[in-house]
Amino acid sequence: MKNYLKGLIKEMIPVLLGVLLALWINNWNENRKDRKYINNFYLSLKKEFRDTDEEITKKLPYQKVLLDTLEVYKNDETISLLEVVEKANGVNGPNIKLNYWKALSNSKIELLEYNRLSILADIEKGNELLKYKTNKLLDFVYSNLTETGKKEKMMLRIMIIELITTQKEIQKEIRKILNE
After folding, report:
1. What burial class does residue 180 get, using C-beta atoms within 10 Å of its C-beta: 0-12 exposed, 13-18 middle, 19+ buried?
2. C-beta separation of 98 from 124 below 8 A
3. 170, 130 in Cβ contact below 8 A?
4. Cβ atoms of 130 and 163 closer than 8 Å
5. pLDDT tens sequence across 135-174
């Protein structure tokens, strides 16, 4: 009986070592695939964020023109909000791209480090706030198109400044990712 147990143990040890080695190799391979996935994700995300950073930078001068135009015509009660917006070539806002972030957040979010995850969540939150402010601004403009008063022009000015501030905050967070 003692020899039987010794023989059984001698046969089990290589099988057990083989199973453990296979598990280790499988874990190593899964970790390698996850690292490759995250590296590819960051390359794509950074490309998307570079485009978004450029878009925000490109749109800011147009928004500043609208602010300057509002300043010029704030006391002129013969010029309506519609005319001010037309003179400034419209209300121009950036398109914040978050496609790769949304894809990852729906699949392998657990692979991200907390600090990166936090920055990406802040960018997404900022984008939602930007959409909200943009909608409010457009609602205000559409409901006051024919208004010529200083009060409406100042309100529009405040809303545009708020929009610009939110865009710059998003851009600051985007640049944290780009500078990693």
Report:
1. exposed
2. yes
3. yes
4. yes
5. 999 999 999 999 999 999 999 999 999 999 999 999 999 9
- Tell me what the mean pLDDT of segment 76-99 comes to: 92
Token output for 92 = 């121009």
- Name the percent of the chain lying above pLDDT 70: 99
What's the number of domains the chain is made of? 1
Over the stretch 112-128, which tens digit does the pLDDT of each residue have?
A: 888 988 999 999 999 99
Token look-up 């000015």 returns 157
CA–CA dist 88, 11 (Å, integer): 84
Name the residue type at position 157: R
Q: Which two tokens stand for residue 51?
A: 């485009």
Which residues fall within 8 angstroms of residue 138, CB to CB, at 6 or more apart? 91
In whole angstroms, what is the distance from residue 61 CA to residue 72 CA? 16
Give the Cα-Cα-Cα angle 108, 112, 118 (nearest 5 degrees): 115
CA quadruple 20, 26, 29, 31: dihedral positive or negative? Answer: negative
User: Alpha carbon of 112 to those of 122, 172, 174: distances in Å?
Assistant: 14, 20, 16
**Are the CB atoms for 135 and 164 separated by under 8 Å?**
no
Q: Is residue 9 part of a domain?
A: no
Task: State which residues form the domain around 135.
Answer: 47-178
Query: What's CA 179's distance to the chain center, in Å?
Result: 15
